[in-house]
Specification:
By secondary structure, this protein is α/β, with parallel strands linked by helices. It contains 16 helices and 17 strands. It has a 9-stranded mixed β-sheet, with helices on both faces. β14 (372-378) and β15 (382-390) form a beta hairpin. α1 crosses α2 (55-69), α1 crosses α14 (419-429) and α5 runs parallel beside α6.
């Protein structure tokens, strides 16, 4: 069993500590890290929220959340007793002075130099005010960090306003902008795959790779987030952060080291090299869709407009051809695709290598299939490389493409930590490598804003697609005009 090193004694304050994110992700993640012995005995977790609640009521809320979101065999009474003793609740409205003095008194009374982390699981519009109140109540010192949950803004201008407001009180080195995809095990493995294997890095360029596909598919709809989603859409919700981060990790040049500064610098270069999408190119480079009624898993489901209760022109699906104008990737497109109410939940990166330059095999041997590297982020994390082999037997020379399959679950046979477990620990350790610098956020929004403006100018509205399908016909045409096709996820792969 792996031995985990405890982090320094800390106070972690979660604003929005009774909300959905805290209950589903943050508190279960912290319970697991406590279970593995990574917290000192006097470390504390404080939930701050507007509702009136006693400590005892909050502890029961957390227990109910763990019972709901964790398997029964992952709960342990001894760990729960230790974990629950850390929990505190503070009634506090971020926008008013009441409650801040009590929180400050509670955090200061220890008198030690413990790490102090403020996690803002709130609306982005409250980020600046939170930072101001934290500062004015004397809670910022050299050991203080602030975590900003996505999204940071809804466009480049609002993102800059938020970053300026928080940056007025916190140094950039103290600000941790969360993108939970960067905490996923398979995403972490991208660096090892590229830079620890002499077999792959020489081939990782336009000469040998035909194109790259990045898919983040969800089978669920917007549900109770329909109103929020109507002001966001798939482009802002998924592409601006998750998918562009994946693109950067696949496309970046080898950094000088794995230090956060070196990695960030290479990612920013990729974002700045993205070819702008304009009104003249948007129809050929993008596809925009919105799910209509259909079926998921054999059950009928409503369309987005039905869930929202009104017609809408927001997209629940987007596909993009992204071109990177640099020496490594010029001429090799990156196809991005994400949407809701698709046939399955799957996140994967497909590296499609070029066809061999000449076949020496007889025609009856079958068509040569180019090699393909599939990196599965979820579910069934792992990697699969297709290779062409000869089928055994005396029946003539027959070629077949077969996978070399690395399943992380089968190989390592360990529980895979949730992405938030890793990211929370990196904040507590003071390691910003897995978090976005404000320059990354700015460059990503600059490209996304260009697409939004292009859609508006070219009057590109979402095309309907039936729930349970792989999006609108425009997504198929996007690759078809390049004589390519989407790799469709197969649960049996």
């Amino acid at each position: 069993m792996a031995q985990f090193i405890p982090v320094s004694t800390f106070d972690l304050v979660i604003f929005g500590g009774t909300g959905d994110l805290a209950q589903r992700k943050l508190l279960p993640a912290l319970f697991h890290r406590d279970k593995d012995g990574q917290f000192t005995d006097d470390s504390r977790i404080v939930a701050a929220s507007r509702g009136e609640m006693t400590n005892e009521q909050f502890v029961q809320l957390v227990r109910d959340a763990l019972d709901t979101y964790l398997p029964a065999d992952e709960l342990d009474d001894a760990v729960w007793e230790r974990f629950s003793a850390r929990l505190r609740y503070q009634t506090l409205d971020i926008t008013t002075p009441e409650g801040w003095q009590e929180l400050a008194r509670r955090l200061k009374k220890t008198g030690d130099e413990r790490t102090r982390v403020f996690y803002l699981a709130t609306m982005p519009s409250l980020f600046g005010e939170s930072a101001r109140q934290i500062s004015e109540n004397g809670l910022i010192d050299a050991h203080t960090r602030i975590v900003l949950e996505k999204p940071v803004g809804s466009d480049r201008e609002s993102a800059r306003e938020i970053n300026d407001a928080v940056g007025q009180y916190f140094a950039e080195s103290q600000i941790y902008r969360i993108d939970h995809y960067l905490g996923k095990e398979t995403v972490q493995n991208l660096s090892a795959l590229r830079f620890a294997n002499a077999l792959l890095e020489p081939l990782w360029n336009r000469t040998h790779i035909d194109h790259v596909q990045i898919t983040v598919a969800e089978h669920i709809g917007t549900g109770n987030r329909a109103q929020f989603y109507n002001h966001t859409g798939a482009l802002r919700d998924m592409v601006q952060n998750h998918m562009l981060q994946l693109l950067c990790l696949v496309a970046m040049e080898p950094p000088l080291s794995m230090s956060h500064d070196d990695v960030r610098n290479e990612k920013i270069k990729v974002l700045k090299a993205l070819r702008p999408i304009t009104a003249d190119t948007a129809k050929r480079s993008t596809a925009r869709g919105q799910y209509a009624a259909g079926a998921i898993g054999g059950e009928a489901v409503d369309g987005y407009a039905d869930e929202l209760g009104e017609k809408s022109e927001i997209e629940t699906f987007v596909a993009i051809r992204a071109d990177i104008d640099n020496w490594r990737w010029n001429g090799t497109p990156f196809y991005l695709r994400t949407g809701k109410r698709l046939p399955t939940k799957a996140s994967e990166i497909v590296i499609q290598f070029r066809q061999v330059t000449h076949s020496i095999f007889p025609g009856q041997a079958g068509e040569l299939q180019p090699n393909r590297l599939i990196i599965r982020l979820q579910p069934n994390e792992g990697m699969m490389l297709t290779m062409v082999t000869k089928e055994p037997g005396p029946g003539g020379f027959q070629l077949r493409s077969l996978p070399l399959n690395l399943s992380f679950n089968d190989t390592y046979q360990v529980r895979y930590p949730d992405a938030y477990e890793r990211l929370l620990m990196e904040v507590l350790r003071g390691n910003p490598a897995l978090f976005m610098h404000r320059a990354e956020v700015d460059a990503a929004w600059a490209w996304i804003d260009g697409i939004i403006d292009a859609w508006s100018e070219a009057k590109i509205t979402p095309q309907a697609y039936a729930a349970g399908t792989w999006g609108p016909t425009g997504a198929i045409v996007l690759l078809d005009r390049d004589d390519r096709a989407w790799f469709e996820h197969d649960d049996d792969d």
